UniProtKB/TrEMBL annotation:
Gene Ontology molecular function, alphabetical: phosphatase activity
Superkingdom, taxonomy of origin: Bacteria
One Pfam family recorded for the sequence: Metallophos_2
Name of the molecule in the record: Metallophosphoesterase
Cellular component per GO, a single term: cytoplasm
Length: 247
């Protein structure tokens, strides 16, 4: 099975369209969407419709913390500077869209892969995988040999050896990585809609479960137009700037 992974679309239509076209050209058997479809970007309604259309075709879609925040009174774990975009995004979604976001599952299993937005050890608390210890906690919490999470906005890859030692790799765009069956693996494909590693190109990944090969991809898109749309919507300026510089 060839599994396509998209995460943290964040209302960015231009990035989502570019990544989707890229994945269609590459070919895949199953699509997994790892949450955070809304907030930050100027087209949250369109992105919701995109995800719903993919689910109708058989895709697996999870809830992210920004998705949950569309129906919750607070913004658990979020900084104050996020609140203006959260409030604006709520006004752009229909009640049905907000309820649909809140109905999405926290985790899912696809073949040998365990999927979550934030982590697998406490998925509803939205804790970040900040390093090897957090990755190990999620790997220990899952029986699956492969774990995929979003939330971090930067491509990352961790492994756990049979003796309990953890390690990490920095993925290179387009370079297939053989995931040894002697180890267990946790991968973060990065963000489609708001990369934060200094590269404005959108992130995604493809995992071949038969060969055990994972490839991280960066997809250029019209980030200047996405940035302009954020400005036109009256959203905070740092959200527009972030797309231009990928930080």
């Amino acid at each position: 099975m060839k599994l396509a992974l998209m995460s943290d679309l964040h209302g960015n239509r231009q990035a989502t369209e570019a990544v989707w076209q890229f994945l269609l050209e590459q070919g895949f058997d199953q699509l997994a969407l790892l949450g955070d479809y809304v907030d930050y970007g100027a087209d949250p309604g369109w992105v919701c419709e995109f995800v719903q259309a993919r689910m109708a075709e058989g895709a697996v879609a999870l809830m992210g913390n920004h998705d949950e925040a569309m129906v919750s009174s607070g913004a658990q774990g979020m900084a104050d500077h996020v609140l203006p975009s959260l409030q604006w995004t709520r006004t752009q979604l229909s009640p049905a869209q907000r309820q649909w976001l809140a109905s999405l599952p926290l985790t899912a299993q696809v073949g040998p892969c365990h999927l979550a937005h934030a982590n697998t050890h406490r998925p509803g608390d939205w804790g970040y995988i900040l390093g090897r210890m957090d990755a190990a906690a999620s790997l220990h919490a899952s029986p699956a040999p492969y774990v995929f999470c979003g939330h971090m906005h930067e491509p990352q890859l961790f492994h756990l050896t049979p003796t309990g030692k953890t390690g990490d790799f920095t993925p290179v765009d387009g370079v297939p990585i053989p995931l040894s069956p002697a180890r267990r693996w946790l991968a973060i494909p990065g963000s489609v809609g708001q990369p934060r590693d200094g590269n404005p190109a959108a992130c995604c990944a493809l995992f071949d479960t038969d060969s055990g090969t994972l490839t991280f991809h960066r997809v250029p898109y019209d980030h200047a137009e996405a940035s302009r749309r954020i400005q036109a919507a009256g959203l905070p300026a740092f959200l527009s700037e972030r797309l231009l510089h990928g930080r």
